[in-house]
Amino acid sequence: MKKVSLIIPIYNAQEYLKECLESAVAQTYKNMEIICIDDGSTDGSGGILDSFADRYDNIVAVHQSNKGESAARNVGLSIASGDYIAFMDCDDWIESHMYETLVNMIEKNNVDMAASSWTKEFPTYTVEMKNSEDIVPGVIGQEELMYYVYRRDAYQGFAYMWNKLYRRSVIYGNGENPLMFSEDLRLGGDVLYLARILLNTKSAVYTPENFYHYRQRKVSGCHTDDIEKRMDWLKAYEVVIDLFEYAKVKEEILIWVKRFLAYHSSNVAELSFQQGNRSALVRCQEIMRQYGNDYRITNEMYPDRVARYDKILEYQ
What we know:
Layout (H helix, E strand, L loop, with lengths): L3 E7 L3 H12 L6 E8 L5 H11 L3 E6 L4 H11 L4 E4 L5 E2 L3 H12 L3 E9 L4 E3 L11 E2 H9 L13 E4 H5 L16 H12 L2 E13 L11 H20 L4 H25 L2 H13 L1 H6 L5 H11 L3
Parallel strand pairs: 1-2, 1-4, 2-3, 6-10
Antiparallel strand pairs: 4-9, 5-10, 6-7, 6-9, 8-10
């Protein structure tokens, strides 16, 4: 039986960590190592992790000083021994048959990746993410996969890094040196990493089952009001565009990545305006103008979005 390495970076998630780890150890797929990296937590998360490691032989507990989520994930990648690699965030949880299903899908179809749909978990309600347009039945080629990942309005089930299982070769090639997360990015490391994985993925399969539960928290990184961190997110998308252009990814796919950069630039521009950060506002507006046509073309069905975009471009 092939092994799954599940990598979980942990930082100050005391309120949610027990549910996360319980869902990981409850997996029906039994040949798993669950690599947990406590990234300098100060709230008792490290103690919760150690209590689970004492009870479950397949949990690998690592403690380090705070270096950031990407650095923690890199530690996990450096010691992972599995035939398949997966990622999970410490405040989320998963269905018990997630990895058994995804392993079987990969092996049955001889592909590089298996993906599932997921659920947004709000404090008082949940939203199951569904694809509004049909996908290619059976095995999905690289171009179709990239199209699904970045055309978010129509294919919400494909979106992220953590609702997938990867064949080891996608991340490690034929050796033992894995693709590493960029530790220079305080936000957006997962955006860049998924893009690099997609360039190594030739084939994939997908199930609409909602295996992964993504908890929505106002204090999470993607909701931060820290302009400098949010600018790193934009930088990540700029690097992705450069990578895809170098790899000659088709413009039909690339335009959707440009749309993401334009959209996130508008969000940071709005936040910069509210905080009176003129230099950040100007920089974001420059990006918005650079990719304005891409944003308008990909939002033809959403005139309200375009109107908001144009309004933000007028901010002084």
